[in-house]
Amino acid sequence: MKVKETAKKFTILYVLIGLIVLFSILNPVFFSIQNLTNIFVQQSYVIIAAIGLAFIMISGGMDLSVGYQMSLVGVITALAIMWWELPVPAAVLIGLAAGIVLGLINGVAAVYLKVHPLIITLGTMTIFQGVSYIISNSNPIFGLPDSFKYLGQGYVLGIPVSVILMVLIAAAASIILNKTYFGRYVYALGSNEEAAHLAGVNVRFMKICVFMISSFFVAISAIILVARAGSATSATGVGTEFTCMTAAVLGGVSFKGGAGKVWGVITGVLILGVLSSGMQIIGLGTYPQYVAKGLVLLAAVGFDTYQKSGKVKK
Amino acid sequence: MENILSLKNITKLYPGVKALNNFSIDFRPGEVHALLGENGAGKSTLIKVISGAVAPDEGEIVFKGNSYKKMTPAISRKEGIEVIYQEFNLVDTLSAAENICLGEKHGRFVDFAYMEKKAADIFRQFHIDIDPGTPVERLSTAHKQIVEISKAISKNCDLLIMDEPSAPLTVNEVGAMFEIVRALKAKGITIIYISHRMDEIFNIADRVTVMRDGEFVETLDVDKTDRNQLIRLMVGRELSGNYPQPTKPSGEELFRIENVYGNGDEDVSFTLHRGEILGLAGLVGAGRTELARLLYGADKMEKGRLYLEGQEIHISNTSDAIREGIGLIPEDRKEQGCFLEQTIEWNIAFNTIKQFSRQGFVNDKKVEAAAQKYQDILRIKTPSIQQLVKNLSGGNQQKVVIAKTLAAQSKVIIFDEPTRGIDVGAKQEIYELMCSLAEEGIGIIMISSDMEELLGMSQRILVMAEGRIQGELERSEFNQETVLKYASVG
Asked: What is the interface pTM, i.e. ipTM, of the complex?
């Protein structure tokens, strides 16, 4: 029984390892340090945003506006450097602050309009999109300085800066969720909001906090992405929300809330990354990759439900 | 044909459990036959075998002289077996008449006149005043149940199975339902009646069968048995069957509330003494749960003052209440009381998790120690405190909810329907626990719709109706009629 449960807990890891083995057999080029490192570096910004979204999902909410938050934060940060000619650290701080404000907007709207966050963020997503394009005037912002690009392209002791940031954030998120009472409150909100309320949790405050934390991570993710690209456009980061959602669900974050682990989210993102890279290497283009990603997601959730309903029957 | 239905040597295995073990039982035509047993005794499985929802592994079912290896839902319905489950099977947006005639074909098009006439005929038989055209969602719980019953009768059933029909009803409504059950019996319909409430069985049933752990224990004529015997048979061990009583409270004031308004309640004042169990009686909707939520800070108090141990306290949210030492065991343990997907340990420590933390970090040792301590005190039956709460029985889940409140060192605990839906053995344990808490000097406010339990446990009873306190009874004045008289004021 114990063994079986542990085995089930790590199913998602086996899937990742299985995919790596599969692609390595199909084309040995896949299994090179170079390629595996690439996957990791490419996915680091997605992992950071996905961890942010996971906070919201664990608390029982949802955020569709992740992509346009990234777009808006990217544009604002780039503007701060290029138009206002602020030093890079100040511009980054402004970008992060802008991100947190977007989270605050989402959180306050969700709490006071008393509508499911899915709908709220459907609305704010559209607003953020509009604002982002108004600010950028649909033009890309080029010529970001090297000191800024360093965040997305630089190395410290041979390790990419983005990977270092990702590891730090994953560690911080994991500690918050597992070791602090705040983390328990997040799980409690997602498991049973009414019980949390009766247990003395300030539900409104918590919801707003969770949105702000998530948006903070998303803003970091946006800055890394823009720094890697070397330029910002209003299209930067758009669509990331669905990648994040797919990865989170793959990694065992419950859609109803109350369950999920940081390592699961990371594994989920890496599975998607390995699929992309592996299929590219064996010569399958972007569109077959979409089909494969969709199938993997359906297989994962189907397997999960099948196991659960199997239990009920017993 | 002496028996309308006989089950012979039925065995039903689920992985790891014998839900029914070589079980035989007979039902006579036109009787009200009660099934009694603790949770997990096999009552639900028995109903499912009869209605055809599950097939037995062994045994024979004889209905109206025909023998079956197993029933199927289609056969049982065709032969005249209907089941009314605890959860209503009604389409909320359709009218009462449409629900009653659901699944029936009459003519080529929907014939509203026919349906309404049919529904009205049935309602008239029972002297019930429901407009057949009313959408079900606008009916009261009691009326919804009448629609359920009418639906079953309209199929011309001979055997009606009622699974805890009184659970959602108030005292008056239960009385009305009994009238219907008697009328059905007079028409020769056999009724299998399942209930946890002993007084109902003595009120309505002709015979009662006790089951325990999937086995048949005994079938008795109701007028030849008594409460204590039934409990003994059901639990399989001697239980006092009496309500434990704490030593007489000192009379020292612990918690005083003055002129509280809010949540539909008006001008509520009373004093709770140290070590006292104060009962709050009233019909559903009288404002008792609403009052509990006000005192606990779960809903906003418009006006009023609270004094704990002589000091005025201000409670504007639930965390204030927990800090001041007021605890609430909410009425719906699954929806409000616990986190089913989390572990026992996690649940027990949750109300006080801040106190078990330093600089925001949870001290796992303190959490484990507290969980272990309250698991022992409350005798929560589980192999490990790492078990998920959803895997526990109702009684043990309730104990987890209580442990959560105890861990917060409450001085006043409000128990809202503490024994709803849990079995006799666990009920007794919860009564004993309440007494020992009272003896430690904790003040207890107990809300219960089970009149017997309320009269048995309380030292004093306040009766509420329409959001106000209508009367106060000392233990020497306790009786059901007086309580009901105050409860139906207005």
From this structure: 0.85
